[in-house]
Design brief:
- With 108 residues, the protein is an alpha+beta fold.
- It has helices at 6-10, 16-27, and strands at residues 36-37, 44-45, 52-58, 63-70, 88-91.
- 16% of the residues lie in helices and 21% in strands.
- Strand 1 and strand 2 form a beta hairpin.
- The chain is globular and about 45 Å long.
Length: 108
Amino acid sequence: MRAGGIWNLVTESQNQEARDIAIEEACNCSSGRLVITDNESGKAIEPEFDKSIVVIEYPPKSEHGPLWVRGGIPIESADVKLYEIRNRVTLCRCGRSENKPFCDGSHI
């Protein structure tokens, strides 16, 4: 946990280094569940992604992770439910997630 974790970092909003680390940590969240919002503008601080879908794999640990969907690609369920369009999401491909179609890390 870097610098005490993102939840501790955001409480130190007056500290520029803590703010920068919190933004970096949130932007590194592949699922997009961690999003930092600028207090003045109310806008999310997010990395820019081209539209892409990436398969997450970590062969040394035999981990077969989610599909990483980036760049605001719409996600639609089999019953035609359109989910909120997000800059980045991770979709379950192992079948173990309790939050399908989204990954909850159960593959680990």
